[in-house]
């Protein structure tokens, strides 16, 4: 007997299939740049949205009562583990991700919390022995409990800093025990609400101290996972320190941490920072810092993190364009940090959501691959900057000129001729490639 009884194995059946529970475009065995689609995309299920969340919102009670919700406490936690591996297997998904509190309930004391965690970790470890699904990353939830009210590593209270250190220490041990490929830091409460009560410099120095200690400890225990910072500008805190990739990069550089971290980029966080998803991926990639992705989508009509499943093919195409240019995500993957809408309360909706997300990224991958093969944008961009490949432009990029020589050159110029940027033409081409990929 299972928890998702009505669903059998989800398989690739092709775009003509009318089976609600089949992949139409995501064929795990299809080859992409020398790897199977499964190996290249490295999809992950988010434990918190898929198994822990219940549809509660600030205005309403749970709508999603899963079959395991008849249990409570540790029994519930164990039932969720059973259900999760049934889900992973039926979805044929290679990875999952969790926060500590998603998998094991907090006890009255830290000791008790750790004990609960150990029990669940032992159970997960048993499943991992036979399951093909592995742990992409784990993290510590340092934002829900009231103790984190003023932050964790950036709290004005040193006791809270110490407690946060204990949580991450445990998280690193758990990551090692379960063979996690990455460890994520998302600082939802690492920020401030008003400068009237904030010592920003001390908070940032402390955050850096915290990261250095985390690195030292992971080295000490031989946990060689990739550390990832997940930027987000706001929500729940008004101003979060890991605002976006550029801000995170400057922080890592300032504190000598750059070589040890990469970024976990979330689409909806990019939107909240006033960027596109592809902007954040691009900035990370061009600095060699693209580590992993929280694959979701936001709603431009709403100013908060709606964490929707990704179905926008323009967005998945432009994201996969960056990921292909990055030659994949290394130890990272595409984690669905996404939740079904509160009105989608059946467990079948969880399957529909993941199928739609995986198919959307598969289409995006195919389109992006073709765009790159045909060098559509690359040739256009190369031509747009061709003035830097000869003459005065080449002298500029080769550092062979200066302001005096440039003034001489400028004085000799006639009327300057610019070329059109051709945005609309390029968007039309993008449409053509998307439609072609879907038709194939
Ligand atoms: C919150 C968010 C987190 C992180 C992990 O917006 O994205 O779930 O991914 O803590
Ligand atoms: Co996220």
Walk me through what this model shows.
The chain starts with 10 loop residues before the first strand and ends with a helix. The protein is α/β, with parallel strands linked by helices and 440 residues long. The model has no long low-confidence stretch (mean pLDDT 97). The protein has helices at 37-41, 47-52, 73-91, 100-103, 110-130, 158-177, 200-221, 245-254, 267-272, 277-286, 313-325, 347-373, 376-384, 391-397, 403-411, 423-439; strands spanning 11-12, 22-23, 31-32, 35-36, 43-46, 95-99, 134-139, 182-185, 191-192, 226-229, 239-240, 261-266, 290-294, 334-336. The strands form 4 sheets. The protein has an 8-stranded parallel beta barrel, surrounded by 4 helices. The chain contains 16 helices and 14 strands. The longest helix has 27 residues, at 347-373. β13 (290-294), α11 and β14 form a beta-alpha-beta unit. α11 (313-325) crosses α12. The chain is 47% helix and 11% strand. Bound molecules: D-xylulose and cobalt (II) ion (CO). D-xylulose (XUL) binds next to loops.
């Amino acid at each position: 007997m299972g928890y998702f009884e009505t669903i059998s194995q989800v398989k690739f059946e092709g775009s003509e299939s009318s089976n609600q529970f089949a992949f139409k475009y995501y064929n795990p065995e299809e080859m992409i740049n020398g790897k199977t689609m499964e190996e290249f995309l490295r999809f992950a299920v988010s434990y918190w949205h898929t198994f822990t969340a219940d549809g509660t919102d600030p205005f309403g009670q749970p709508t999603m009562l899963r079959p395991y919700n008849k249990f409570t406490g540790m029994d519930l936690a164990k039932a969720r583990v059973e259900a999760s591996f049934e889900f992973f297997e039926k979805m044929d998904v290679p990875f999952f991700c969790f926060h500590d509190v998603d998998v094991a309930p907090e006890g009255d004391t830290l000791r008790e919390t750790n004990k609960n965690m150990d029990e669940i970790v032992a159970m997960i470890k048993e499943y991992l022995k036979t399951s093909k699904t592995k742990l992409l990353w784990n993290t510590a939830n340092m934002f829900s409990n009231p103790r984190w009210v003023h932050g964790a590593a950036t709290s004005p209270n040193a006791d809270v800093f110490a407690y946060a250190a204990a949580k991450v220490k445990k998280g690193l041990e758990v990551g090692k025990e379960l063979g996690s490929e990455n460890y994520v830091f998302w600082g939802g409460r690492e920020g401030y609400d008003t400068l009237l009560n904030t010592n920003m410099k001390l908070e940032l120095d402390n955050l850096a101290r915290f990261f250095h200690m985390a690195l030292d400890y992971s080295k000490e225990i031989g946990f060689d996972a990739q550390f990832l910072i997940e930027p987000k500008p706001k929500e729940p805190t008004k101003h979060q320190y890991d605002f976006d990739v550029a801000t995170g990069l400057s922080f890592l550089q300032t504190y000598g941490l750059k070589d040890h971290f990469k970024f976990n980029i979330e689409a909806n966080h990019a939107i909240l920072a006033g960027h596109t998803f592809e902007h954040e991926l691009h900035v990370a990639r061009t600095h060699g810092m693209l580590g992993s992705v929280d694959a979701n989508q936001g709603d431009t009509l709403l100013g908060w993190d709606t964490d929707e499943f990704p179905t926008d093919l323009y967005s998945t195409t432009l994201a996969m364009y960056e990921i292909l240019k990055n030659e994949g995500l290394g130890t990272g993957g595409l984690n669905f940090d996404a939740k079904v809408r509160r009105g989608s309360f059946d467990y079948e909706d969880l399957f529909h959501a993941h199928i739609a997300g995986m198919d959307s990224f598969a289409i995006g991958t195919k389109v992006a691959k073709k765009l790159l093969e045909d060098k559509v944008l690359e040739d256009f961009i190369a031509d747009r900057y061709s003035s830097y490949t000869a003459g005065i432009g080449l002298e500029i990029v080769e550092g062979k000129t200066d302001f005096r020589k440039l003034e001489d050159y400028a004085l000799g110029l006639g009327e300057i001729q610019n070329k059109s940027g051709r945005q609309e033409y390029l968007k039309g081409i993008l449409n053509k490639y998307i439609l072609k990929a879907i038709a194939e």
